[in-house]
Structures are given as C-alpha cells and as structure tokens.
Amino acid sequence: MKKIIFLLSGLILINCSKSNGEKQEVKADLMEVISEDKAPSSAAAPIPPPSYISEKMASDENGTNKDVYTPKKTDTISRKIIKNGDMKIQVGDIKKAQRQVNDILKKNNAYIQKEDFQNTDLDDNLNLIIRVPHKNFDVLISSFSDGIGSVLSKNISSNDVTEEYTDVSIKLANKKIYLEKYRDMLKSAATTKDMLEIQEKIRELEDEIDVAEGRLRFIDDRVNYSTLSLNLYKEKVRSSATSKIGFGSRFVDSVTEGWNSFVSFMLGIVSLWPFFLLIPFIIFFWRKWKSGKKNKN
C-alpha cells in the first residue's frame, strides 16, 4: 500500500514540474514577441523639433547667445509711412459743400475727428480734421480737389517711420525677455533685499514696455489712418446791410478803444504820484530863492 502511495505522489510531482516548465517556456516566448514588437518602434527615427527650437537648443548647448533676441524671417516689418495733408477750398455755399464732403467721406470710409465753424462779417470758415484709411487718402484728396470748390492751397506730406518702428519693436522684444528672466529670479530670491531690488527692476521694465507698446500703437494708428486738415472758406458779399453792420461794429469798437486809451492815460498819470509830491517842495524852494535874490538887490 505504501509503495502505491509513493508511486502516485512521484507521478504528481513529475506532472507539476512539466507544467511549470511549459509555463516558463510560454513566458519566454511572450517576452521574445514583446521585445520583437518594441524593437522597430525604438529603432524608428524621432520626429525632429521645429527649427526655432532646435536653434535655441543648439545655442544653449554651445553656451552662447542665450540672452540675445534673434528675429525670425517672419518678423520682417513692412514700411511704415505716415501721410498728412492740409487743404483750403473756397466754396459758394458752406452747407452744400459740407453735404458733399460727408458723401465723399462715406465713400472712402473716412470720419471727422474734429469740427470747428467760424462766422464773421467778412467770411465763413468750416475747419475739419479728417481721418481716412491710408489706401483711400489719395482718392479723398482728388475728390475734394475736383468736386467741392476752388482749391486755394494744398500741402501733402509723407513721413517714413519704419526705422523708428523697427527699433522700438526690437527693444520691446528684448525688454520682454529680460522681464521674464527677472520674474524667474524673483521666484528664487533668497533675501528680502534681493526680492525688493528685483521687484523694482520688474516695475521699471513694465513701465518701459507700456511706453514702447503705446508708441507702437500710436504709429500704427497714424500709418493706418492718414490725417487731413480741411478748411472750407466762403467770402461774404458786402451788401449795404452788411456794410452798415460793419460800420456800426467798427464805431463801437472805436469808442471802446478811445475809452480804454483814456483810462490808460489816467492810470499812467496816477502812477506818477511820487513826482507830484515833490512839486510843492520845488515851488517852495524856488520862491524862497527868488525872494532872497530880490532882497540882495
């Protein structure tokens, strides 16, 4: 009986060892398959980074040009030209001319920034400050020259500010780079003194950046929208009625001017009061001198 039990237990142990061996062989096969599947992916060429990142990494590895801003080819700035104009046009009717001006402005997407009207005995003057897209500036000038009235004067000027715009843009980009570096330094500041000094530098850079950005916005506005100063002038016909009005106003002005002259004269005399105080002494000494002279005779 004991022999039978030993034989059975021996058979069981042999079967278990075979099954474990088979499992190990299966695991080995799986590992080989997995390694074969991973090999091609690891051998594949990595995706290259963008050119500007690779350039920055190369410069950082060489230890040079870490803090230098190098504009990309796409950072080229187009020419910045500011156009301004000044025109004076004589018209027959101010209101009619103003309606014509408004129609021309609508066609050219322009608008009136400032309007000033003056009415005198001699003439009427309507002064307009007009802003117009730079591409419509020449068309606007031609429209005013042809269909409004007689052009008395015209002055057109162009100012190329490309160099100034480029210089401000480059300085602005560099200031932003330094600002980020100071902000990183602020995070790792060890003492309160260092923190205050870095915060002061950050504040100065932020102010300079605001000024530079404001200057760029101003230049862009002047470049995108040209400015035209337009004066509509109408000379009044001097009729008998206007002549009377003109004479009356001049007469009143003359009376007023005469009164002002009289007041100025009186005030001038009053300002000489110290000399008037000396007159009695002068008269007294003169009489005394005269009486003494008579006594000697």
From TrEMBL:
Stored InterPro entries = DUF4349
Every copy of the DUF4349 domain together lies at: 79-286
Q: Where is this region: Disordered?
A: 38-70
Q: Which UniProt keywords apply?
A: Coiled coil, Membrane, Transmembrane, Transmembrane helix
Pfam families on file? DUF4349 (PF14257)
Residue stretches spanning the membrane: 262-286
Which interval of the chain is the signal sequence? none
Instruction: Report if keyword Manganese is assigned.
Output: no
Entry keyword Coiled coil = yes
- Which segments does the entry list as coiled coil? 179-222
Q: What is this protein called?
A: DUF4349 domain-containing protein
Q: Which organism is it from?
A: Chryseobacterium rhizoplanae
